[in-house]
Amino acid sequence: MTPELKFYLAAWISYCILCIWLYLTDRASFPLQAYRAFLYVPWKLITFSIAAIGITVVAPYTADPTWDYFDAAMMSALTFLTAPWATGMLYLGIRGKARLRHVLVAIGVWMFSASWCYDLYLLIRDGHYPITWEANIYASSVLYFSAGLLWNLEYRAGRGVTFSFLEPGFPARPQQTSFARIALFGLPFMILAICCIGYFLI
């Protein structure tokens, strides 16, 4: 491993430790119960299951040798669990409506889910840092952001389809949990995921 990669590895491990410390020292400000209610909605669980199974099944058959069943399933699960919150929190941070602590943790869970868990797994599996680490950041972040937007979609009476992080009290369980009203708006995000999987297969 080059000195630059050793420094990068040490830096992101240190950042992850910082995020854990930020969470543990103020757990009350991270509304996990509300977030579970926000996330565990039937249509979100169904679309996640379809996407995760699709990505995991095709992973070993892509032209990318770094993909296998384990890292595909791991990154899919982490994306579902963190992308809606991280995407919303970063938007609120840009608008000056989120605490710095939450923004820093959002960056950490984004990078860990979309990149660093992949890097660590391949470092352990192959014995060297993956040469694809930088390209993976961009490719996986596109899917991560797209997933974050998809699972933030909700319909509100009198307002129509919106993103949950634009509403007061985020994250909170959507007022209406039917997929029918938001299906058309979610289609572009789902097509993007399908195209990415197809690209790697081709």
Q: Tally of extended strands?
A: 2
Work out the helix count. 7
Q: How would the global form be characterised?
A: globular
- Summarize the amount of helix as a percent range: 55-70%
Kindly estimate the percentage of residues that lie in beta strands according to DSSP.
under 5%
Uncertain segments? none
Question: What structural class do you assign from the helix and strand content?
Answer: mainly alpha
- Mean pLDDT across all residues, rounded? 91
Strand line-up across the major sheet: 1-2
Q: List the secondary-structure elements in sequence, H or E.
A: HHHHHHEEH
Distance between the termini: 31 Å
Please describe the biggest sheet, giving its number of strands, its sense, and whether it closes into a barrel: 2 strands, antiparallel
Question: Would you write up a description of this structure?
Answer:
- The protein has helices at 3-24, 32-39, 42-58, 69-94, 100-126, 133-150, 183-201; strands at 153-156, 160-163.
- A hairpin with a 3-residue loop joins strand 1 (153-156) and strand 2.
- The chain starts with a helix and ends with a helix.
- It has 202 residues and is mostly helical.
- Helices cover 68% and strands 4% of the residues.
- It contains 7 helices and 2 strands.
- The mean pLDDT is 91.
- Helix 1 packs across helix 5 (100-126) and helix 5 packs across helix 6.
- The protein has a two-stranded antiparallel sheet with strand order 1-2.
- The chain has one domain (3-201).
